[in-house]
Description:
This protein is α/β, with parallel strands linked by helices.
Amino acid sequence: xxxxxxxxxxxxxxxxxxxxxxxxxxxxxxxxxxxxxxxxxxxxxxxxxxxxxxxxxxxxxxxxxxxxxxxxxxxxxxxxxxxxxxxxxxxxxxxxxxxxxxxxxxxxxxxxxxxxxxxxxxxxxxxxxxxxxxxxxxxxxxxxxxxxxxxxxxxxxxxxxxxxxxxxxxxxxxxxxxxxxxxxxxxxxxxxxxxxxxxxxxxxxxxxxxxxxxxxxxxxxxxxxxxxxxxxxxxxxxxxxxxxxxxxxxxxxxxxxxxxxxxxxx
Length: 266
């Protein structure tokens, strides 16, 4: 005999959609090719992937695997040859150049290997520059939270030349966070730093995800850097070939060795 359904559960069903993680960005059958004819090179080959909100995702793969191209297409810095990219519910292919520029400015944050700081501006001025360009007011409470998270409280009046490489990259991280972006894209953010400074930056990105609820997508070749992520996705020859949840540097390194062994025997 079936159990009777409780009246209140029928009248007030649970909204399970709230229990599911939201998607910050998504690609569907994304492809990117350069050149034509005999010189045509396929950088991305029909990649479908979702990046969840509030998650730290690392993209890894050998040189030429397409990892930076994937990030650039998802971030609207490059256009795909076919397929689609969405930031939230916004289809990037439907946007004109001005709309795409505005989306990158207002909804995305970027951290690159080169710090890209203006040498004549102080750390604080560099951090708030994107907001000034957009004509947006600075949220002082949010700015204070960012400065505290990245440990720049005593350096805001310094110019880039007065800061170490690690401190300059902290400024770049704070600048990326200043507009409260939906996603931060980081392309080899520790590539030009020594191991100590690199560890600090990765720790700051980890804190941004855990304490501020930020979404981070990072391209890296370093298993140690990937170990800070919640998830690692692996590319090879422009294709998504594997992914790993709750990675450690050791597990990532072992997986990369497996890929190398397969390539040598194939």
